[in-house]
Structures are given as structure tokens and as C-alpha cells.
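Researcher: Here's the sequence for the chain we discussed earlier.
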Amino acid sequence: MVTMDMESDALVALRAASAGAAVVREMYGASLARYEKGGGDFATAADLAAEEAVLDVLRAARPEDAVTGEESGATGAAGAGRRWLVDPLCGTLNYAVGTMLVAVNVALRDASSGIVAAASADPFSGEVFWTDGAGAWVRGADGRDARLIPSAGSRLVDLNLDPPFPHAPGFRAVELMAAPEFVAGFRPRVVSSTVAVAWVAAGRRAAYLTDGGPGLRLDSVHFAAGIALCEAAGCVVTGIDGLPVDEGAGGLVVAADRETHGVLLGLAQGQR
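Model: Thanks. This is the structure I predict for it:
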């Protein structure tokens, strides 16, 4: 097991994500109130309770830091040097219909250094994928840590097909699934939760693709943790234009190795 100073940001992220995951797990299967957010999106009582559990950990451990929660919004100074990004239940629709495919994401963005600590918890496997910005590990339900080692060996590629599609008609993930070049080398999967991003870092998926607008890493409570995990594990991470996710037109291509990334990036750009 990796041991760290109790004050480390990585451990705070891990504990916060674990606290949220415990709430998500406990409330699973209950009849939950829904809170409409517009555009077909909604939160459940579990989203709200899990976010509060995460925030309780962050407030106690890092009371001076700013926080942006998906459900509670931003607190702290707008230009804060340290800001926690919290997605308490990524995969709300999955969860609401009884599908155990969700994640609890917590990341710390430093204004000068980028994402310096992050954790993505799977409430139902009991695993927490985490990084201190230098290395990446998965902590199992038994409390043991194993280093994340990406691998493209499975040839499985997860595609996020949820709208909106800001790069359509130039790029459509659903059309990528049917491209002969894609089918020849990969097997598509469809996952509506960012737990799939952590799976790339863990070697369980060859790659993950999603559409999306610019600023995906800096602004997104959904993706910051997963991107940090993958970068620390040695994956190749860009937007769908091949530029760093902070700089380009948006979207996300995360691959276990450079060869896989190059093939998928070429296919994505070939649509444009």
C-alpha cells in the first residue's frame, strides 16, 4: 500500500471521493427525488447527498480552498489559486434506472500547475483510482494500492454518445463506430460515465472518445479527474483536433499508447 503524509492533497481527494461513493452505494435502489436541471438533465437526492459528503471532507481538510461542485456551484474567490472540482455522481441516469455504472470524481486544480491531485471512485466495485500528479494507482476494496498500467491489448474503445455534439456534422462518434477502419481494429463500447476514462489508465480499455466544447479540462467537473489519472499513468490525451485539451477545439481522445491514439485521432479528423 502506498503511504502518504496525511495532509497530502492526493489523500484528501481519495478520502473525499470515497465519502461520496459510500453515499451513492448506500442510497442505491431507493426511490429518489429528481431535480430537473433542463435539457433532459437532472440530479437525484443521491447526487446532492454525495456532493455534501465530498464537501464535508474538503471543508475539514482544506477550508481555505475554493470549490466548484456540479450541484452546489462555485464557492470561494473566482480567481482562487486552488480549486477543487467535484462531480458527485457521474452517470446519474444510469444510477436512476438501476445501472451500477457511475463514478464520483474529485480533482484539485492549481492555477499555476494544473491538476495536482485527483480521485475517481467506483461505488460498486469499491475501487478508487487516484493520482498525486506524478503517479497513478487504484486502491481496491481491501485498501491495497496497485499502480495503473495502460494497455491497448483489449482493443476495446469506449465512446460517449450523449448529446450535445458541438462538432457535428464534422465529427460524430456514432459514425465512427461504423467506419470500416475502426471496426477492423477495435471493438466499440458505449459508456455514459467517466469511470470509463479511469479504465483506460487501468488497462481495461484501449481508448475513450467523447465530443465536447473547448475548456474541457479546466472547466469540467466531469473530466478533470479522469484526464489527470490518464496523464499520470502515461496515456496519450488530446482533444479531437490533436491539440492539448486546454488549448484546442474540444472533445477528448484518451488512448493507452501513441499508436492507438494516432489511429483514432486520424479517424476522428477524417470525418471533419
